[in-house]
Amino acid sequence: MSPAAPPSAPLSPSSRPARTSRLLDWRVRFGVLALIWGFSFLFIKVGTEGFAPFQVTFGRLLFGTAVLAVAMVVKRDRLPRGARVWGHLTVAAFLLNALPFSLFAYAELTIPSTLAGICNATTPLWGMLLSLVALSEDRPTRVRAAGLGIGFIGVLTVLGAWQGFSGLDVTGTALALLASFSYAVGWIYVRRTLSDTGVSHLSLAGSQVGLATLQLAVVTPLFTSVPKSVEVVPLLAVIALGALGTGYAMLLQYGVVAEVGPTTASMVTYFIPVIATAAGVAVLGEQLAWNTPVGAVIVLAGAALTQTRASRRTATAGARLGAPEAPPSRVGMRPAGAGRVGTRDGALAGASASLRRPVPAALRTLDADPGTET
Questions:
Q1: What pLDDT, on a 0 to 100 scale, did the predictor assign at position 5?
Q2: What is the DSSP letter of 72?
Q3: CA–CA separation, 371 vs 264, rounded Å?
């Protein structure tokens, strides 16, 4: 659910969207994506009323894998090849799916879905903070550094720090923030390891979610027991969470990113906490103190500032100052990497807003699913 920055593998013929065959305008699909990811926190809350957190996560991943597997069959896409790619996908599956999905499920045992949705919006802030260390080529500007500070002020506002965090479940909130941090770590890892595989985005996404399903299939029986009875509403919530929030939403995001680019698509990050809050209050009757929406606005403002880039003039001047002069024999030749397109991704996603390459939507995760998937 956290929109974030997947690797920049080139679109394969089987995964390239046919723009002329779009039945819905991208704005409609963008809105549907925001609704699905926003309601995912409600689905998690309802799911945990009938199942253990690990069971909710396993069901979510299972149904999400089923949707992505069907899409791969329809598009005749192939699974990735090579032990190295599968090894990196295994780590990505843990950091972007198995771990954060489980943490959010456990967090919502004790905190409202509204707070979980707002915590998810901190993913770009964690990504910005980590990029200062992990991505040396991405130097922060003053505006982005200010955004980082403003964002964390927003977090303290949401948590009611001036009240000593009274009435707040510290453990549940910490788990939700740790889930968002996991998204940020995961997308930086993906950026460094899976950006040039040549595999289609759909294939990478389906394989990653499938691996996460296997991980939960091993863990879930060790910590849970089969429920004595299955209630219909929690079961439907888990099915919707997986089929819509993890499967169909990833396909939607992939299409939107491919059509309008990662920068525009990453704006879904700012709608998710708004929808999550509205759904929690309207459907679940959760209470909302004044500092929650105010802090959420501050968090989103800070996250937006961390997404800004240096002006082209500044970047060009910096490149000229830092780059050695080309030897005469190579003057006029195209420099290495000149054909790459420099973009940034927020999200979904979110977490590694500092990435400089085009972003495939399918691997987003958000939950930021990553973002952008949650």
A1: 41
A2: H
A3: 14
